[in-house]
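Supplementary Note 2. Why include the ligand at all?

Several targets in our set were suspected to adopt different conformations when bound, so apo predictions alone were not considered sufficient. For every target with a known small-molecule partner we therefore ran a joint prediction. The input for heme C is given below.
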Amino acid sequence: MTKIFYLIVITGLLIGCNPKETNIDPNSERELNPPEYFGSYSNRIPDDNPITRKGFELGRMLFYEKKLSGDNSMSCASCHQQKKAFTDGLATSPGIDGVNGKVSSMSLVNLMWAEHFTWNGKFEQIESQSIEPIRNPIEMHESFDHAIQELEEEGYTTLFQEAFNAEEITEDLIGKALAQFQRSLISSNSKYDQYLRGEYEPSPSEKRGERLFFTHPIPGQLRGGNCGDCHLGPLTSGAIDGFQGFHNNGLDTDENIDEGLMAVTGDPKDKGRFKTPSLRNIALTAPYMHDGRFETLEEVIEHYDNGIHQSSTLDILIIEGSNENQDAGERPRLFLTEQEKEDIIAFLHMLTDEDFISNPDFSNPFENENN
Ligand code: HEC
Ligand code: HEC
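The joint prediction is reproduced in token form.
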């Protein structure tokens, strides 16, 4: 009954708050308004799953719904917490049975501009990715038959009817609603965005940091941090062209390197290549890397500056990115000054978006129920 009550409240809000919207079809598209510099997104939303108000609200409820886990103790939001830009602050996360996965929870941000999901890219669609943790024995460990039965008991059938014009709740529709919510998680009001819009004047250090971040160094001519070679443009995430956004950023040697993308493609050239994550809100999402090995941004910068491990698949952009001339075969180093490291970190802090982590549209709709 509680969920039905919520539906009435939400519908009331949609109609009540804004008199202009009284006649708007509840299935009308939900406005997203991302900045133009993120690139077009019209072709990034699947034709069979447009983002509607009802679908978004249902997806939001499911995202926070503990009934989707085997013992009703965990929801997606247990490992993807809004205050932490939808990560959980842990190196690896325990599922309902207390077993930890091998990789770190990922920040969910601007997912519309990504083509492959998870650290090794095993999912092509947010829809299919969203179903997986529910069934996964080391995550929410729930069967769909049982989850659907519980959702029916909670009164969700009406919500699925309204959102998808569907007779019954299905696994496929759960994935679709969750995907609509997650595609809407757009972060675009950081200081960096305000600066791009001409609303914020960066400090000298932030300005230098931005330039270093996006500059590929040329020894003796141009100093750079080389970050933007892989963390591209204002989104600071990897290329969305196939697996081009997957790189080996020198975390390990051939002896101890994780499989990474090779687990998906079977190609040894892909060993140790991982998805280049967006650095938006990065100051809020420690620890860092797919296994959460670095506690701080300082450690991350030390890694890129003087901690790169050689391996057969180490990325050419790392090998060729240095502020000093290096002999072939030498361990690649950036040779940044202490000031330059501080400046890059100042720029990374500019990517924090307080509005995103406190946006009431993305928060737990059951908060008052202590759910
Ligand atoms: C037990 C913790 C846990 C729970 C619960 C959980 N996740 Fe995750 N999530 C992770 C981890 C860990 C990864 C990285 C997985 C990998 O690389 O194999 C991840 C990755 C993702 C990604 C990929 C992001 C990207 O940029 O590629 C999405 C999307 C996602 N989760 C959505 C969800 C949804 C939706 C739910 C609820 C149905 C959920 N997660 C529940 C821990 C969790
Ligand atoms: C060759 C491409 C490449 C370059 C150059 C590069 N990165 Fe990365 N970055 C990656 C990849 C790939 C990952 C994920 C690696 C993993 O976890 O296995 C990553 C991860 C990170 C993370 C952790 C993100 C998280 O969510 O845990 C941070 C922070 C980061 N990079 C910052 C930087 C900075 C700062 C620079 C420049 C000094 C830089 N990167 C240069 C590809 C690159």
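Residues 11-24 have pLDDT under 50 and may be disordered. Residues 107, 225-227, 229-231, 247, 249, 251, 274, 276-277, 279, 282, 285, 288-290, 300, 304, 315, 317-318, 344 surround heme C (ligand 2) (CB under 6 Å). Comparable summaries for the other entries are listed in the accompanying table.
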